[in-house]
Amino acid sequence: MTLLRNPKCYTDVCIDGKWYHYDHCGTRVYMLKGGASAEFDLNSEPLTEGELINQIKQISPF
Length: 62
What we know:
The protein has one helix and four strands. By secondary structure, it is an alpha+beta fold. It has one domain (about 10-60).
């Protein structure tokens, strides 16, 4: 699925039982775990949900 190019949009994805939040038009991803959420920087701005998931899998140490 293509991600909308709108900074007011976001996508939440579940990978291996962990939820991640991505605000469109950026390169930051947050793990949703309550309290202080882990923050990750993506290599580039993803254009599709599949690309977002692949980038998260490459950088997430969890």
